[in-house]
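Hi R.,

As promised on Friday, here is the backbone we talked about, encoded as structure tokens. Could you run it through your design pipeline when you get a chance and send me back a sequence?
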């Protein structure tokens, strides 16, 4: 598939896809005319890259991690290192801390909403008499 179709199917801009390729996160074959040509596997790969970025990982870490992950083809984990596993565990711990902080913030906001709502008087809407 061409880059435009991959962008449409994955919901990622063509510019981002070219960046992923520069960073070693995605690879494309080239047609005789020089156009990028991606296999079906690329959609899953791009979605996975997006999820890893959303988790707070940087492109360098993602590039080291991707060969260890199974794509849709079920390829084996051959390239994991102890250090990479440690870094990923640290990232997971960081994400857990952020989640805990967000839940705490949401709870405080819920309390504020409840307190603010308790003092409100619901205005009466006049009804018209028949």
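Update: got your reply. Pasting your designed sequence below so it's all in one thread:
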């Amino acid at each position: 598939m061409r880059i435009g179709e991959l962008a449409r199917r994955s919901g990622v801009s063509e510019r981002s896809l070219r960046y992923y390729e520069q960073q070693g996160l995605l690879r494309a074959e080239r047609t005789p005319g020089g156009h990028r040509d991606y296999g079906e596997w690329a959609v899953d790969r791009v979605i996975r890259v997006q999820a890893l970025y959303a988790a707070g990982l940087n492109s360098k870490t993602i590039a080291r991690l991707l060969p260890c992950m199974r794509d849709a083809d079920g390829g084996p984990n051959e390239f994991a290192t102890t250090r990479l596993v440690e870094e990923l565990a640290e990232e997971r711990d960081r994400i857990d801390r952020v989640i805990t902080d967000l839940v705490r913030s949401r709870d405080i906001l819920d309390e504020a909403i409840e307190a603010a709502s308790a003092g409100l008087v619901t205005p009466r809407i006049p009804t018209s008499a028949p």
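One thing I noticed while checking it: The radius of gyration is 24 Å.

Thanks again,
M.
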